[in-house]
Amino acid sequence: MGITPRILAYWIAFGPHGPRAQAPKGEGLRIAVKVAQLTAVSVALFYVIHLFAKPQPKTMSKEWQEASNEYAKKINPIYGISAEGYEGKGFVQSPPAEKS
């Protein structure tokens, strides 16, 4: 095998083509733009879905959750909210309900 066939064989085996090819110019920018577009679409879709969603159930109000705490204090005196020395916030996880 002469030098030229060896060079050609090397080029065919290990040359910059197929999966080893260089990325085209501007590909990184195109990917960044597409990611930004899809992120904007997902945010818009999120807000459209929440625009047409039903209001939160009444059990998500802070007042309801505080009443659940009072009820839970009478349930089990061994552990949880009704245990001696309990200092957690219990079932309260929501801000106070807005008056409308």
UniProtKB/TrEMBL annotation:
GO terms for biological process: mitochondrial electron transport, cytochrome c to oxygen. It comes from the Eukaryota. Gene3D superfamilies: Cytochrome c oxidase subunit IV. The keyword Repeat does not apply. Coiled coil: none annotated. Keywords: Membrane, Mitochondrion, Mitochondrion inner membrane, Oxidoreductase, Transit peptide, Transmembrane, Transmembrane helix. One of its GO terms (molecular function) is oxidoreductase activity. InterPro entries: Cyt_c_oxidase_su4_fam, Cyt_c_oxidase_su4_sf. It is found in: Mitochondrion inner membrane. GO terms for cellular component: mitochondrial inner membrane; respiratory chain complex IV. It is a single-pass membrane protein. Pathway: Energy metabolism; oxidative phosphorylation. Belongs to the cytochrome c oxidase IV family. This is Unnamed protein product.
